[in-house]
Design brief:
heterodimer, A: alpha+beta, 5-stranded antiparallel β-sheet, 9% strand, B: alpha/beta
């Protein structure tokens, strides 16, 4: 009975301000789409960063076959350096799992490659002080200076050392600029969506001011009066959210999927990544509706 | 049932509508509030349903202090106090039945209660055969009956009527007064603000006269002036 009442009121409300409701929904759609896009851009770049640098500034690749003593010895030596922040050892299993995960859709890497043989294990290092990278090369007896990423070293068991500081910095910077750029447009659009949803609620309340007046007179509670409008706002922003998710999948299928298999060592976002932003889009949609409700009905909040 | 103790109401714009008003209304009484336009009649009605807050003094309705009432309790107050206005306040897109049912629906009464009480009260106000008519198909008097039915369908303790005959011709007004008297006789306390002299004189009920916000007369079985 109560649910039926609310649904009826909501449907009537959406019908009544068709055009304004459409404006609110389409703005919510664009806002939530951009919001999701910003999250996906960040996700995409994080995949690339992980593939290219393993998310660390320095990787010390070890020569096969790896002996546990060698790992322990090098790890202990490096840990003593003041420049070193954290060290993590990636053995064959861990390295190959990460590789599979990043490149599972790129068949060229999966076939004919025996991961266990092809990929070296590594010590992955984040520096406490990136400017003191030389401490590591010195400790491992590597060639000093140079700009090459694969630095040869004399330390037994060490195949080479990769300096990802620059690459990581640049990729992180690009990620930040792109996703924050899109995110700030999304925030502006979200603000307009809130304003437009609030406006539809206000128009709805104005159109029904007589009914609302009577409801107050006969002792309807505030919630009884407000809930149909809140649901209306929620429906509008959720329709926008669903459309935004659909649009993100379309982008993924028509743009990202076209690149799949063409770029080497370039992992791409997958359906699961798009799905992973869905909860965030829904949360943002609910937030839009709640804020719009609070703003739109402020004038009507007092009895 | 209703008690106003040293009530003063000053609006935000500085106008003082009521000054130091003391009024006691017993359960089951019928009271006229008379006075010229702007004498404070409507303000008194608005205070009694807490559409406005008192500036000074205390108001009790059914034993509850309105000034201390939280906004959560205001709907409860209004369920116990029916209100009728000069302009009927009916919804034009709803039938007579739906207009009265609306009053119960929005306070969450179940369908079976609505289905039972609405025809009952409409029969009581003499509109038993107009359930599916729309307001614009009714005369002014009939519309006011619908609004009285809506005000009474939840069986309030008090019925407040603000100029209920203001839009009606004298004969129809008499009919409405008979109905209000009938509502009063089943135990509902009725407070009616009016400046309809003929009606007040004919009814010979208690009369409280307001003049520029002061109570200048409180007379049982009184006349208009």
């Amino acid at each position: 009975m109560r649910l039926e009442y609310y649904l009826r009121e909501t449907a009537a409300g959406l019908r009544r301000n068709g055009i304004v409701a459409f404006a609110a929904m389409s703005t919510a759609f664009i806002a939530l789409f951009l919001f999701g896009l910003a999250l996906l851009i960040a996700r995409q770049f994080n995949l690339v960063i992980e593939a290219w640098t393993g998310n660390v500034q320095v990787a010390v690749y070890l020569t096969d076959p790896v002996r546990d003593e060698t790992v322990t010895r090098i790890q202990t030596n490096l840990q003593e350096l003041p420049a070193v922040g954290s060290i993590e050892y990636w053995d064959k299993a861990e390295t190959c799992a990460a590789f599979d995960r990043l490149f599972e859709d790129q068949e060229v890497f999966q076939e004919g490659v025996d991961c266990e043989k092809a990929i070296p294990t590594s010590l992955r290092i984040n520096l406490a002080d990136p400017s003191q990278f030389d401490q590591i090369t010195a400790a491992l007896g590597c060639e000093a200076g140079g700009t090459t990423q694969e630095i040869q070293c004399t330390e037994p068991g060490v195949r080479d050392v990769s300096d990802y500081r620059d690459l990581l910095d640049r990729l992180t910077a690009i990620t930040r600029v792109l996703s924050i750029g899109v995110l700030s447009i999304a925030v502006i659009m979200l603000a307009s969506a809130i304003a437009l949803v609030a406006n539809t609620l206000r128009m709805g309340m104005f159109a029904r001011r007589k009914e609302i007046g009577i409801m107050r007179l006969v002792g309807a509670t505030n919630w009884r009066i407000r809930v149909p409008f809140l649901i209306e706002g929620l429906v509008e922003s959720l329709i926008g959210a669903v459309a935004a998710l659909a649009a993100l999948f379309v982008i993924k299928v028509f743009f990202i999927d076209q690149l799949r298999g063409q770029l080497q060592f370039f992992p791409l976002i997958r359906n699961s990544d798009v799905l992973a932003v869905a909860p965030w889009i829904l949360i943002a949609a609910v937030a839009v509706a709640v804020i719009a409700g609070t703003i739109g009905m402020r004038r009507f909040l007092d009895v | 049932m209703i008690s106003l103790q040293r009530v003063t109401k000053t609006y935000k714009n500085g106008v003082t509508a009521l000054t130091d008003v003391n009024v006691e209304v017993e359960k089951g009484e019928f009271v006229f509030i008379v006075g010229q336009s702007g004498s404070g009649k409507s303000t008194m009605i608005r205070l009694l349903i807490r559409e406005e807050d008192v500036t000074k003094g205390q108001i009790y309705v059914g034993g509850k202090n309105l000034a201390k009432m939280s906004s959560w309790d205001i709907p409860k107050l209004r369920r116990n106090v029916g209100t009728v206005f000069q302009d009927f306040r009916l919804l034009q897109d709803k039938t007579v039945f739906e207009n009265v049912a609306f009053g119960l629906e929005v306070i969450g009464k179940p369908k079976n209660v609505i289905g039972q009480r609405v025809p009952e009260i409409l029969e009581y106000v003499g509109l038993g055969d107009k359930l599916s008519n729309y307001p614009d198909e009714l005369s002014g008097g009939e519309q006011q009956r619908v609004s009285i039915a809506r005000a009474c369908v939840n069986r309030p303790l008090v019925l407040l009527a603000d100029e209920p005959t203001g839009n009606l011709d004298p004969n129809t007004s008499v009919d409405i007064m008979r109905l209000l008297d009938k509502v009063n006789r089943i135990g509902t306390t009725v407070v009616m603000a009016t400046h309809d002299q003929a009606i007040v004189d004919a009814m010979r009920k208690r009369v409280i006269e307001l003049d520029e916000g002061y109570v200048v007369r409180d007379q049982s079985r009184g006349v208009y002036s």
